[in-house]
Amino acid sequence: FHKRAQQFYRSEAIHAHLPQTLNSLAAVEMETGSQDSAEVLLMESLEMARTLGNVFDQAVALALLGNMKLAQDQPKEAIVLSEKALLLTDRSGAAPLALQILCDVARLLVRSELDQPEEATALLRYVADHPAAEADTRRRAAACLVELDTLETIGDLTGQDVWSVVAGIRSNLADTISLN
Questions:
Q1: Cβ proximity of 100 and 59 under 8 Å
Q2: Contact at 8 Å (CB) between 149 and 120?
Q3: How confident is the model at residue 156 (pLDDT cuts 50, 70, 90)?
């Protein structure tokens, strides 16, 4: 049994799942307030995912790091990390993850010095109505919309695909970064 366990541990199959496991552990650490530990786990996950060529888990780690920076009131760092995460979701074709990150970007647009509630509202409506959005992402978007307490129509994004929206947000984030 011990020899088989060692072989399994050394196998590529187990290593391929380590970035995802580290991201999950980091999310738990963030929830319990252990930011330093979460950051170490996320950096390890990011490095391992890069080594494995796992673009999806790189995007997840960057998105979690962006959320952490936002919670630490570091919006500029959160913007940079969110932009990198969106770029990777575009490369991996992970529309549900891109929509989660867009929801986080909307929160960033409202809860930082950027103060762009109209753009945030439009993004949140787009995410909440997108067919590829997961149920949890839809709930988060709806909760943020309630938090914004706006009912007016901010433009119709319905006809755009997720990658057009991602490209537009990435462009807006790049402009915001260059202005600062």
A1: no
A2: no
A3: very low
Distance CA 141, CA 148 (A): 10
Q: Could you read off the pLDDT of 36-66 as tens digits, one per residue?
A: 999 999 999 999 999 989 999 999 999 999 9
Q: What is the dihedral of CA 17, 18, 20, 26, to 10 degrees?
A: 160
Global pTM reads 0.73
User: Closest Cα to residue 27, out of 77, 63, 80?
Assistant: 63
Contacts 24+ apart (CB under 8 A), 126-131: 126/102, 126/157, 126/158, 126/160, 126/165, 127/99, 127/102, 127/103, 129/158, 130/95, 130/99, 130/162
Sequence-distant (≥ 6) Cβ neighbours of residue 62 within 8 angstroms = 46, 81, 82, 84, 85, 88
**Structure token pair of residue 13:** 């199959």
Q: What per-residue confidence (pLDDT) applies to 175?
A: 57
